[in-house]
From TrEMBL:
Mg(2+) binds at D33, E221. Keywords: Magnesium, Metal-binding, Transferase. The keyword Cytoplasm does not apply. GO terms for biological process: polyprenol biosynthetic process. It comes from the Bacteria. Substrate binds at G34, N35, R36, R37, W38, H51, S79, T80, D81, R85, R202, R208, L209, S210. Homodimer. This is Isoprenyl transferase. InterPro entries: UPP_synth-like, UPP_synth-like_CS, UPP_synth-like_sf. The active site is at D33, N82. Catalyzes the condensation of isopentenyl diphosphate (IPP) with allylic pyrophosphates generating different type of terpenoids. One of its GO terms (cellular component) is plasma membrane. It holds the Pfam family Prenyltransf.
Length: 253
């Protein structure tokens, strides 16, 4: 172990001791950003190697979350906008995601895919559906895997589902309009039944949500990390938790 690694290990333990009595977020959302830029910074012409390196980091993150008592993690792996990437890059990225999902199934996690699965290739959609069915009864940490996800699309899907539900009961639009409130829509989101994220982490230095959990993040705390996702360390995760614990959460402006 190098001197630098030893220093970080000591720092990790110090942070862990401080967090032992701190409030821990129940639900953490993570925008795993910077895989392509990491590959280019490393001088790699094949950006899929960055995506693979980022996928390898996911299992580490989930272990860290389990260790501190996080109950739900939402990982944004592929946005609806990403579906417009060049075919060769998109196909390799989807293969990485499919392999990652199957690895997470094998590791024993409870997976909940979320997103517009109808926009994905059939094989990718089948892998995600299998993961949901195969792990639905598992206890412990819930891992929301957002693939083909867009915040605006989620809200549109929720409203569409709500309208279809009430139409199936014979209700009119006018009747629905009289009773409609935010809870009705929330019950049709991809994360229905789950608490909203307490903390949203984004890597790569970008300080924006890009449409991630638009509805659910109304009262979330945000933590922006400069590291590209493949370089995200346990120290960075603990720093995010420390920042969250130090904040006084206020609801409203």
């Amino acid at each position: 172990m190098s001197v630098r690694d030893l220093i970080y290990k000591v720092y990790e333990r110090r942070l862990e001791r401080k967090l032992a009595s701190a409030k821990i977020p129940r639900h953490v959302g993570v925008i795993v950003d910077g895989n392509r830029r990491w590959a280019r910074a490393m001088g790699l012409s094949d950006v899929s190697r960055g995506h693979q390196k980022g996928a390898d980091k996911i299992s580490e993150l989930l272990v860290w979350c389990k260790e501190v008592g996080v109950e739900i993690v939402t990982l944004w792996l592929l946005s609806t906008d990403n579906l417009g990437r060049p075919k060769s890059e998109l196909e390799s990225l989807l293969r990485v995601i499919e392999n990652l999902v199957m690895d997470l199934v094998a590791q024993g996690w409870h997976l909940n895919p979320m997103g517009a699965l109808d926009l994905l290739p059939d094989h990718t959609a089948r892998v995600l559906k299998y993961a949901k069915e195969a792990t639905s009864d598992r206890p412990g940490l819930i891992v929301n895997v957002a693939v083909g996800y867009g915040g605006r699309r989620e809200i549109a899907d929720a409203v569409r589902s709500l309208l279809q539900e009430h139409a199936s009961k014979g209700a009119t639009i006018e009747e629905l309009a009289e009773i409609l409130d935010v809870e009705h829509i929330a019950k049709h989101l991809y994360t229905r039944g789950q608490p909203d994220p307490d903390l949203v982490i984004r890597t790569s230095g970008e300080q924006r949500l890009s449409g991630f959990l638009l509805w659910q993040s109304a009262h979330s705390e945000f933590y922006f990390c400069e590291a590209y996702w493949p370089d995200f360390r346990k120290v960075d995760f603990l720093r995010a938790l420390r920042s969250y614990a130090a904040r006084h959460r206020r609801y409203g402006i």
